[in-house]
Design goal:
- The complex is a heterotrimer of chains A (278), B (375) and C (313).
- Helix content of chain A is 22%, strand content 31%.
- Chain A contains eight helices and 15 strands.
- Chain A has helices spanning 35-40, 82-87, 125-137, 163-167, 192-199, 214-226, 259-262, 268-272; strands at 11-22, 25-32, 48-53, 57-62, 73-78, 95-102, 115-121, 145-151, 172-178, 188-189, 206-211, 234-237, 253-254, 257-258, 265-267.
- Chain B is α+β, with helices and mostly antiparallel strands.
- Chain B folds into two domains: 3-207 and 356-371, no CATH class; 214-339, no CATH class.
- Chain B has helices at residues 8-21, 95-108, 116-123, 171-178, 189-205, 214-218, 224-231, 239-243, 288-307, 317-321, 328-339, 365-371, and strands at 3-7, 23-28, 35-38, 63-72, 75-80, 88-93, 125-130, 155-160, 163-168, 184-186, 250-256, 260-267.
- With 313 residues, chain C is α/β, with parallel strands linked by helices.
- Chain C has two domains: 1-107 and 155-179, no CATH class; 181-313.
- In chain C, 32% of the residues lie in helices and 16% in strands.
- The chains are: A alpha/beta (278), B alpha+beta (375), C alpha/beta (313).
- Chains A and B meet through strand 4 and helix 2 of A and strand 4, strand 5, strand 11, strand 12 and helix 9 of B.
Amino acid sequence: MTSATKTLVPTIATIIEAFDETPDVKTFRVKIDDEAAAAAFKQRPGQVAELSVFGAGESVISITSSPTQTEYLEFSIKRCGVVTDYIHTMGAGDKLGIRGPYGNGFPVESWKGKNLIIIGGGIGLAPVRSVLNYAIDNRDDFGHITLVYGARSPEDLVFKWEYERWGAVKDLDMNITVDCGDDKWSGKVGFVPTILKEVAPSPENAIALTCGPPIMIKFVLQDLAEMNFTPEQIVTTLEGKMQCCVGLCGRCNIGSLFICKDGPVFTLAQLNSLNGDF
Amino acid sequence: MVTKILSAGNLQAWLDSLVAAYQVYAPVEGEGASSFKKIAKGQMPAMDIRTDTPPKGLIFKQVEKILSFEVNPDGITVIPGDENGTKKIVFGIRPCDSRSFTLTDKPFFDPNLPENQYMGHRNASALVTTACTSACRTCFCTSIGGAPDEKTGDVWMMDIDGKYLVESLTDKGEELIKANEGLFSDASADDEAAAKRIGEEVANSMPKINIADAKALDALFNDDAFWQKLTDKCLSCGACTFVCPTCYCFDVRDEGNTRKGERYRGWDSCMFYQYNRAAGGHNPREFHWKRMRQRMLHKFSYFPEKYGDIDCVGCGRCIRSCPVSYDLRDFLEGSLAVTGAAPVGFEKELSDVDTKDRSCEIKPADETVKTGGGL
Amino acid sequence: MEKLEAELREKAKELLEKEEVTTVIGWGAGWNPAKASPLFVRDAQDADKLVFNPFCQNNLAVYLPRLNEKAAVITKPCDAGSVVALIAEGKIDRENVKVISIKCPGTVNPAKLEAAVGSLDDATAAYLDGDTIVVEVGGEAKRVPFAQVALDSCYLCNQDNVFGDVVIDDGVTKVTGEAVSVVPEDADSAWWRDFWAKEFDRCIRCYACREACPACYCRDNCAVQALRERWTGAKLDTKEALMFHAQRAMHVAGRCTECGSCERACPVGIPLSLLHKQVGDAVRKLFDFNVGEKADVRPPLEVFRKEELESGH
């Protein structure tokens, strides 16, 4: 916790690098200015930070870098609101507010020895990428890794600059697909659920992580069930519903839980037991 | 703790003594609406009214500055907002309103992640509760676990036939009595018996509504028709939530520009269409019946599930203030009928959080002038 | 009054039984006899729950732009004006809405009544007896002439040409009287500033006025809560409240029927009617336009005529 006594007050961070991923997604590498605050900021894969542009407001963004990356925090941000629009105008040297990390994160310790199936769509790769890179950096702790990732078009794929590195990792089966190809695209074409069915990962000793647009999630969950994955083996993250991140503002309240404190990572089994407006 | 008698004639003297040392807020009649206002020396509060707006904003401010910022050549200077609170006494608060703070304390005093500004105002405040000697027809405190004579706050007092029985409930409260000992006389067992009798009489005069338990209500979640019918006439405004002493949803907004400005935390309402709309436009509670469902279940199912108490104090303000006269009791009775669940009643008492001594002592007003703040 | 109520229930029953509509929006009993509450009747059997009395204050036209079913709406002449205005603005699907109009005796202004008889909270009965409003509290019947406690707008109401698919006219006598909420003749801009500074000081920005207003149907596009461009600040002060109410007044100018729904919805009793009356007067003077009169004329501030430019308006 960066500011346990000042709940809603962020600390200052500097953007050290910013680059385009897609026409509407930009990745920012950020370092917290204050050394003590930076040292105290210890995130788990799947946790989020509340970023703020002073004068524009706050926005909850998942930390896409793995905790094994200690040089900086990475945020891949889609332009879709007042704050994110403003952040997109910012670059190296600009200052942001940051508070966090918040949320439970993925229980990666309990997944030791397991096979990971990571299923992402669009910007939904960002939260689960933290797990992917964590598993790569702790390669021997995990079994086989399957990545199924898709976007609308080749230019909408995020983290293209990582694919070569990921492709070289041992025992990592990488499946990148697009809904609609173009002249230059020679990879897979098809929706994520379709490709997932082709890949047909085994549920044995496996955990499936998924994040993406609601319609993709819907079909992915159906398909995983058909492949005999149990609800306990399927994990997703709901950080898009969070706002204040401290369990108070009320927006992410689902049943007696607050996504920002009790989530955002839930197993499908947990979600099935909850009544909520999703 | 002490129990004393204050003659009606000495009430003004006690108030004046408190006003001389502290900022004192009390019920005041006003054009259009009554509310808690800062009172002056010699001013007698409207002790017999139930204010149209709750005293919530004295501690959980409607708009609270979280920070101010300014860009300068070395970076950004961020100055956090007031977290010590202005020392004050909330005088003549009814047991329901007093109870509301003990409820809001539960999420805001989270041991792992306390909300420091709410906590600051709360610790800097002393509540002098006035028990009710009559009930309105919109009152239903006895149905949610409260009572017209519930002993909550720092000092508790009750009008027993022209004089007040005054009891301190905390050290902070005892201080307010001890500093003015000359105004009080000793209370007899008869006085205490009289207060007990009045309390019982008032409680008995109130119809008791049975409330389905948290789990049974949560099971109603998927009964869309129930919620749609319940919400038909709701206009989706925020009147109920803004006059509610326990509603605490908020929004965070920036003012100014990206070079210099402030950030505020302000009341929001889960009844607003805009409340749940996410960046990008997705709105999981697009329909007003979904928002109503969230509000009702948060108060009567989710909050009790998490903290053990219903997040409603039965003050009835939402009923009186609703532009379409929506009656919360219709929900309570309707849901009980639909769930068929045995009413649970409320065995659980409020936790001891309110009797805990708060870290921050009340300081005389001249000191508060220097630290600034105020409403 | 009983006869009127009976006719109303009969009509509602008929519409529901013949399945001409799926709901009839009227008034039912409120928690307090001096407060009727909107009622959506979906079952012919429930038609008897409909009431009509001088405490039916809500303007039910407010529900029409949000409806997605075939509905009948019961209107007082003032509310019928709102329906006409909404039709003129193209906000009502005329095919799906049946308007049952009542020529009514007038509506009680709760603030005036409370001023006359004290708090209505503990009223056990409230009714119109001839030309007198009777409120029973604690066994005592408090009586006050209706003419003293009606809405100001009732005194000006013209019931000659009431709009409606069905008009129920029982020849009830309409209340007459003098408006009390009037601006002093010598009111200048300083008077207005001081007056509203005092009144808006207690605004809690709950937006009940907006949601109770038939002309306020912008939902998430409302200028004060829009996602992107917000025209009011986060702070809660008189200036921001004034900004909100002034914007609302300007946005409903030429569309507001001055029904007073906003004022009655206000939990802190801000006399908003006065603001809308002032704006309404300006519209009448500038455009010679009466809101709610013609369903086929667009509101004056929604259209632009070349001659307006030439006449300097």
